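RECORD TYPE: inverse folding
INPUT: structure tokens
STRUCTURE:
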């Protein structure tokens, strides 16, 4: 008899992710992919050259499990400069093979069977399977457009004596919100009242727009010893394929996360680590210019979509903006809309309902604007009749 029925159901029963499904649909239909969050630019040339130089003339054997010392120092210095966060690079900083591995290390370090973990929907797709693999029980909070904000009632409904951790994404993918201090202080109050560890997915921390400033939860009073902060060089430098993640936490938390990391990927390519260390030391002008360029792309896609009749929700951060289809009177859900436009208009987007496990918001669609002008303009031209062609 086949043993396939006894395979791990946490993973065996998972569907193909919406990102893979829509990216495959984009390939099959020769469509412009504004769904998955990657730029169509190769990334900063000087950082790529630093990686090549380190590969040719540097160390190419196993680096330290915790990361190259120069990168750990660069991470600590970077966060000290940008956020006033003082970190000991040797006991409070670890390098991982991407942000997802960093989050997995953090979740498996904290969550034990029966522990409850608060998660906010829309929720990134890797969170729930890893929580369940650890034996944890997700407690889901439903965030709603147009503001996607936290409030007292929603936290009161899920925090209790069994709550072990909260998993919090800020800036929030897919809804492109940068949370203000007011919301962070509210969440911090509940974490302290119920003795909860916060695992903070902050990979978009440098990708913020207008007057919105990223505030790490770990810097809120009372949260320094109970927060695991996760960052990503891939998002900071638009080098998503490099998969260099950061974990920052007080020593008691980091020590256990490091033991998990040891048995996941163990270490990360040393030439890429060396290049990221170089990149983190770049002047403020680089990071401000990156935001300015992405702001221009955001505004280009926003203006174009609005001119076609799409109600755009303002993007405060990330590579994404969202459109709320509900005012349009279309006779289709966000998922149906995305499948229609990839087939009929050759543009791929992501339905935000895919980020919900319970009671989904079914009217919001996510587009990625981290693309060249000509890519965005061609997509807009293709979408010119997508609203008029489907109204009741």
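DESIGNED SEQUENCE:
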């Amino acid at each position: 008899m086949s043993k396939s029925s006894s395979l791990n159901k946490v993973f065996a029963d998972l569907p193909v992710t919406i990102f893979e499904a829509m990216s495959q649909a984009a390939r099959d239909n020769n469509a412009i992919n504004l769904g998955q969050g990657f730029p169509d630019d190769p990334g900063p040339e000087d950082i790529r050259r630093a990686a090549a130089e380190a590969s040719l003339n540097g160390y190419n054997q196993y680096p330290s499990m915790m990361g190259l010392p120069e990168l750990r120092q660069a991470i600590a210095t970077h966060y000290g400069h940008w956020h006033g966060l003082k970190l000991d690079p040797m006991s409070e900083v670890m390098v991982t093979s991407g942000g997802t591995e960093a989050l997995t290390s953090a979740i498996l370090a904290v969550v034990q069977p029966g522990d409850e973990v608060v998660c906010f929907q829309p929720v990134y797709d890797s969170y729930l399977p890893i929580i369940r693999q650890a034996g944890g029980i997700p407690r889901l909070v439903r965030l709603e457009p147009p503001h996607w904000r936290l409030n007292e009632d929603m936290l009161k409904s899920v925090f209790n004596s069994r709550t072990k951790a909260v998993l919090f994404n800020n800036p929030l993918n897919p809804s492109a919100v940068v949370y203000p201090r007011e919301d962070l202080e509210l969440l911090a109050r509940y974490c302290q009242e119920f003795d909860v560890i916060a695992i903070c997915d902050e990979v978009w921390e440098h990708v913020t727009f207008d007057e919105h400033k990223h505030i790490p939860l770990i810097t809120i009073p009372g949260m320094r010893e109970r927060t695991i902060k996760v960052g990503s060089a891939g998002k900071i430098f638009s080098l998503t394929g490099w998969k260099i993640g950061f974990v920052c936490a007080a020593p008691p938390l980091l020590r256990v996360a490091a033991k998990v990391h040891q048995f996941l990927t163990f270490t990360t390519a040393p030439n890429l680590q060396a290049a990221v260390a170089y990149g983190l030391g770049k002047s403020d002008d680089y990071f401000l210019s990156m935001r300015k360029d992405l702001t221009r792309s955001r505004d280009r896609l926003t203006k174009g979509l609005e001119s076609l009749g799409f109600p755009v929700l303002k993007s405060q951060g990330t590579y994404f903006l969202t459109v709320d289809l509900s005012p349009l009177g279309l006779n289709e859900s966000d998922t149906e809309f995305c499948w229609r436009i990839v087939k009929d208009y050759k543009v791929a987007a992501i339905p935000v309902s895919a980020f919900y496990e319970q009671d989904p918001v079914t009217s919001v669609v996510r587009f990625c604007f981290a693309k060249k002008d000509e890519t965005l303009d061609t997509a807009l031209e293709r979408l010119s009749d997508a609203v008029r062609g489907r109204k009741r």
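NOTES: Residues 284-307 form the longest helix (24 residues).
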